[in-house]
Amino acid sequence: MEKIHATTVLGVLHNGTVSLGADGQATMGNTVAKSNVKKIRTLMGGKILVGFAGSTADAFTLLERFEEKLNAYGGNMKRAAIELAKDWRTDRYLRKLEAMMITANKEEILVISGTGDVLEPENGIAAIGSGGNYALSAAQALKKHAAHLTAEEMVREGLTVAADLCIYTNHNLTIEKIAQS
Question: Are 97 and 62 in contact (CB under 8 A)?
Answer without folding.
Answer: yes
